[in-house]
Amino acid sequence: xxxxxxxxxxxxxxxxxxxxxxxxxxxxxxxxxxxxxxxxxxxxxxxxxxxxxxxxxxxxxxxxxxxxxxxxxxxxxxxxxxxxxxxxxxxxxxxxxxxxxxxxxxxxxxxxxxxxxxxxxxxxxxxxxxxxxxxxxxxxxxxxxxxxxxxxxxxxxxxxxxxx
Length: 164
What we know:
Layout: H1 3-21, E1 28-33, E2 36-42, H2 45-48, H3 55-67, E3 75-81, H4 85-94, E4 98-103, E5 128-131, H5 135-163
Parallel strand pairs: 3-4, 4-5
Antiparallel strand pairs: 1-2, 1-3
């Protein structure tokens, strides 16, 4: 694991914490170009009422606005969770050079868990992939978020049952 990968993943983790603080699934992403963050995002589909408001998509949009071009050539995306199919497609279309992700996503991850979407021979762009950077920290954050959410739901069900 390279030092800069850890540095940028820590930035993505900080964004994931922001998302968690407002009740979103804690996934954060940054786009880096020549040693600078040019795009940031954290999961926001609930708050934005937008099913496409994944951390990766928001970071890509922010980066494209920053440089004034939808092609993010020579840019790297760091994200705390393995991307889904929508986000993987956006990586190809934006021409991201490299994807670095933390935790694997066994249910919907299409980079290495459920599929190898970025390895398909029909794609017109190849994205380099590095996985497992700060994986444990990324995974623990997600596990804790869902553990707390389940506990809250259980408490709410219990309160409703007792008030009936």
